[in-house]
Amino acid sequence: MVNTEATTPATDAEDSALAAITVSARVPDFWANQAWLWFAQFEAVVVNQRLPDIARYNLVVAKLNKEAIQQISDILLARPVNDKYNTLKTRLLTVYEKSETRQLQKLLSEVELGDQRPSQLLRRMRDLARTKIPDDTLRVM
Description:
InterPro entries: DUF7041
Order of helices and strands: HHHHHHHHH
Domain DUF7041: 27-108
Number of helices: 9
Protein name: DUF7041 domain-containing protein
Organism: Eumeta variegata (Bagworm moth)
Structural class: mainly alpha
Mean pLDDT: 77
Radius of gyration: 20 Å
Number of domains: 2
Largest sheet: none
Shape: elongated
Distance between the termini: 65 Å
Number of strands: 0
């Protein structure tokens, strides 16, 4: 039997609220030391939810710690009219991501094998190099 009842605005709002709660449970707290990876995971979780801009903005804010909240206090107190999520994301990445120069310096001078496997070291080196240094060069290093 097919349900022929039309959905009401209240039902849609309830479904949207339930979806936001479910998504929120799957998103970890913000990773200040790897903000770009956190945003990659966050976007993978919310991509199929079709959440509006304000819902994504609110989900990110809910996952921030006190220090991160202080970094975006001006955005919180005077929310942008448009593109709230991207404004918030851009600020957090600007604050918490190391400059490309610093990432390359760290790659060249501070990365050691230590007690890691070579494959773990290579993965860490790829994270630091991003797309600036080819894999073949990283393997030689």
